[in-house]
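Key idea: predict the complex, not the pieces.
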Amino acid sequence: MTTQRPHPEDVQTVGILGTGVIGGAWALHFLRMGKDVLVWDSAPGAEQRLREKVAEKWSVLEQLGLREGADPARLRFAASLESFCQNVDIIQESTPEHLPEKQALFAQLDALTPDHVVISSSTSGLLMTDIQQDCANPGRTVVCHPFNPPYMIPFCEVVGGEQSDDAAVDWAAEFFQLNGKQVARMERELPGFIGNRLQDAIWREALHMVDNGECSVADIDKAIAYGPGLRWAIMGPCANMALCGGEGGMQRMLDHFGPSLKEPWTRLEAPELTESLYRDMVDGFNASTGGRSMAQLAEELDDCLIRIQQVLREYRDSHGIER
Amino acid sequence: MTTQRPHPEDVQTVGILGTGVIGGAWALHFLRMGKDVLVWDSAPGAEQRLREKVAEKWSVLEQLGLREGADPARLRFAASLESFCQNVDIIQESTPEHLPEKQALFAQLDALTPDHVVISSSTSGLLMTDIQQDCANPGRTVVCHPFNPPYMIPFCEVVGGEQSDDAAVDWAAEFFQLNGKQVARMERELPGFIGNRLQDAIWREALHMVDNGECSVADIDKAIAYGPGLRWAIMGPCANMALCGGEGGMQRMLDHFGPSLKEPWTRLEAPELTESLYRDMVDGFNASTGGRSMAQLAEELDDCLIRIQQVLREYRDSHGIER
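Result:
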């Protein structure tokens, strides 16, 4: 029996497997998105804990904005793994990061779940190529790695393993993008994915600096939160670098600051700025701006920088936080 | 003739040397702070260009918040370098990054300026140890490296060279902190200082990823702006990592995620998590929180995350920006 996969817009019921920190937050996210959420977690007390968390966090979801139909009453727990697998339009799995257990779980899910249903893992440290190896129908298994908590932080990475069908990965990317996430649809697996790699680059440089007595933990946090971190909430590091090039954008920036890549300004050595990388950065940046001019990007950066700092100042003043 | 250095609170006149992108923005910053700003720049048309910039950006300074007495009419240009040096309580130098020229300039400034006046450089790429070597009184020469534009981005690093007096560096750190900046007072010189090192770690990892076809420029920017960048506008990477440890904070986080430092999640290898580094991170983080609990930090993060995303959404909606 093969049923066609529904259009991502037509997903009614999201299956949440595991209700720990990540799985529970996924459940909140899809309740906020106005979906039916069916949960499976065999741990004693899981249902009560999740229902308490939903009640506790509902006002946060309201502040973030509820989609039509969003209702905590749409949270249900399945009576068995079998009935869970038979009654969902997509599964988001968030269990502990142990490869053998996850391989066995995916084989079981694959056997119990209709072939057209996409089975997605929240894994941050494992590769779907490894997880899917005992599945009879691995084509519909994918990874959607969120940032925590997924109801609050929009970014996620969607990627398949070697046996995943491109169509299933595309479907998942569209589904999550339609449902409040900002998706990077990756063409290949990469340890650490994208966001954690970038985050780890800062974290490791910070650890080296503290290890060598070059600066304090407080200095590192101050440097980012009152420095580039303010800008990165508005647009990412590439756009911010391109804005250093003024009207000339990324191209002018690379021309001007390319030589500084040779400086020992971090322990990470830069790649050679070849003609090919130069073109990839310039073309890639131009493709990323949605046709907006550098002047428009600069205006957005300035306006939002002012507003964000006002928000932070008002919050801190009203809470007596000195910073 | 030796005059005592005034208390940092009592500085009346800030001397701005150079009116390029950085120097001009410093002039705006100190006008916003309610200071007299005396400028020296011998380039033809410099005065007219800066006055136009002040007029153009004054509304931005108003939105950022003006200190008492802030007035564009308090901007004056010196008739000569000699009269500039004789009539300022501190000099902030922002000329091009050429060491021989900067060495000669500092020797000249040192000869013309009363001994008690601190002479500060905006340099990002040179070391004060090198810049100050031809000064007769190098003790009062320091670096204050800002992020651009300094009237908008609060963070700066204050550090001396080998011949700088600790008292002068401390004085400068206090002066900038009193005048709207968030200062990291560094104990030693470090190529790239703090902020640019952390920023470059991300930028170089991003270049490697594009170079290897691992992801696109758009993916990198999306990963940061909709991921950790949102959190880093509120508190820096160390505090955000510590929040992953829940009530256990940094200590629990290092216990739990320490092993992931061995993962190839960036091209930058992490240092060994020795007992000494472990203690430095835990104690350094605890010293950085101003006595606030993990629960208070978590509440600030959540509340500000919601508000910042509302601000960004409202701005983008009102400007028809799809993102």
